[in-house]
Amino acid sequence: MIHPTRRTGLALLTALAVSPARAGVLRVTLATATPGGGFPAFGDAFAAALHAVEPDLVIETRPSGGSAENLGLLSRGEVDLALVQGAYAYPALDRGDGLTVLAPMYATPGLFVLRADSPLRSVADLRGKPVALGTHNSGLTVMGRAVLAASGLDPERDIRPILLDHAGDGPAMVLDGRVSPSGVGGSAGRASSPWPRRPSARVSSARPRRPWRK
């Protein structure tokens, strides 16, 4: 997403790709999220790919608390671009906060991840269990709460919700048993994922009222 006061900068981004003349290095700042999640990995890859094509375009990634903080950074003009999950983006667009979408990133299915030997088989089985929903300002946390509510569980009372300081903390908490499942986005299977390659964790789509498959 981008703030309207930054549209001139985006026009320059476009001009770099079509103009043979170079006026100098263009630097823009992209807010991502906490280490260990999909946003930082995507942001770094995005910046590197554009810089490889246009050496005069430098996108500097900036860690943040996630989607909610990114909206504030954009509104205050502290960054040029920001990665924002749809659960936060749509309300901001509806409010007319002066933000707009530059381009979509990637589809992000919501997943509950748990140990392969866990006896849990459905969303209903999470009742009373500790669940790492995501980071404090993550769109994934909003998504997880919505899925739980649609499945008949109050995300504040029927489970023991745990909010993370860093997205990368979730996998270790699942594997050592501190939480039952952890919510993750569709980017959890990336090459730099903290999840082990051995089948010691099971990934299940977060679909209301449908059992997780073994």
Summary?
The protein is an alpha/beta fold. It has helices at about 5-20, 40-55, 65-75, 85-95, 140-150, 170-175; strands spanning about 25-30, 55-60, 80, 110-115, 130-135, 160-165, 180-185, 200-205.
Explain what this protein looks like in three dimensions:
The chain has 214 residues and is α/β, with parallel strands linked by helices. It folds into two domains: 4-95, Periplasmic binding protein-like II (D-Maltodextrin-Binding Protein, domain 2, 3-Layer(aba) Sandwich), CATH 3.40.190.10; 111-205, Periplasmic binding protein-like II (D-Maltodextrin-Binding Protein, domain 2). Helices cover 31% and strands 18% of the residues. The protein has six helices and eight strands, in the order H-E-H-E-H-E-H-E-E-H-E-H-E-E. The strands form three sheets. Strands 2-1-3 form a three-stranded parallel beta sheet. A three-stranded antiparallel beta sheet has the order 7-4-8. It has a two-stranded parallel ribbon with strand order 5-6. Helix 2 links the parallel strand 1 (26-31) and strand 2 (57-62). It is elongated and about 60 Å long. The model is unreliable at 5-9, 15-21, 186-200 and 205-214 (pLDDT under 50).
